[in-house]
Amino acid sequence: MPLLFEPLQLRSLTLKNRVVVSPMCQHAAVAGCAQPWHLVHLGKFALGGAGLILAESTAVDSRGRIGTADLGLWRDDQIEPLKSIVDFVHENGSSIGVQLAHAGRKAGSQPLWEGGAALSAADMLADNEPWARLGPSAIPAGPAWSAPEVLDEAGIEHVIQSFVASTRRADAAGFDVIELHFGHGYLVASFLSPRSNTREDGWGATREGRMRLAVEIARRVREAWPPHKPLFCRLSAVDGSVDGWGLEDSVVLAKALKLAGVDVIDCSSGGLTEETRALPIPRGLGFQVPFSERIRQGADVLTQAVGMIVDAEQAEEILQAGQADLVAIGREALLDPYWAHHAAQALGIDANFANWPVRHGVWLAKRAPGLLRALAAKS
Hints:
This protein has helices at 36-47, 79-91, 121-126, 153-173, 187-192, 207-224, 247-260, 289-299, 312-320, 331-335, 339-346, 358-378, and strands at 8-10, 13-15, 19-21, 52-59, 71-72, 95-101, 134-135, 149-150, 177-182, 231-236, 264-268, 302-306, 326-329. By secondary structure, the chain is of the alpha/beta class. Helix 8 (289-299) links the parallel strand 11 and strand 12. It is globular.
């Protein structure tokens, strides 16, 4: 059995394979509530055989949405639409998690297909839901962004409580996993980096001070999240800025997060600011896998590799080399929602389509002998 298709035990959850579908913003929610689009978008990955599907960045506070049509778990009425998706995924043999996030000083931006630019103050005022760009210091995310409001002690506590309340709603919706989004320049990432956090109090000043919000959110979420359910955390292993948050910082943070009850570190990179252009991360195949490997070894924690992982052989090599425990695909899953099933066949298992949804597999298995004969005759 290829390692990619060996089950993985995480607390009381057994993932049927090591294939994870990454969170991908869809900007399709209405008042933070999931729509039929989300059911089809996430449900097809369950039909496609992924072991774990992570729902997109889901706001813990309406003020901290990335875009106006983000999913949310800041209100109780947002639970039921997500529960119907969770139920469908479970009925079709996969596990599902939700990524909880607060966009911080990067709140309020256009969808990528509209340009991805920061929303203007007028656009934000015109929205039905309230917005607020928040951060550790009054340093904007880039030239087009307004300076964030600086969080005081009460504001920081409100953020932590928002994560905790959303955690309880995620449990009510039936999610198997929570992933805390501490990367890509959003609120917690902005506290981590010395480029965006110039505070001199207990929430800044030193690496430990800048880590404090991340560790405290993880600790409080772990207390609220059922002990049998695993907790993931996405980090930008390097934030991409000059003299910013680096890989060895992430190793130290990963150790602290593990002590706080985090089970898996999802290893991404970049996104702190437009200054990332000054310290580019070459984007080749598996370009973030070395981050996963270093954190796995240095912090003695399970890791998830992500970033231009495109085929079964590449994914299997990552796992066999001990560079990660899980392999996440995002855009490749959009290209091929059945990636996991195709990967199994590429690695020499499930030739008879037995692991496909029965309503699909039976037809594919029936066609297979005739298709092989036709292809052989053609060649």
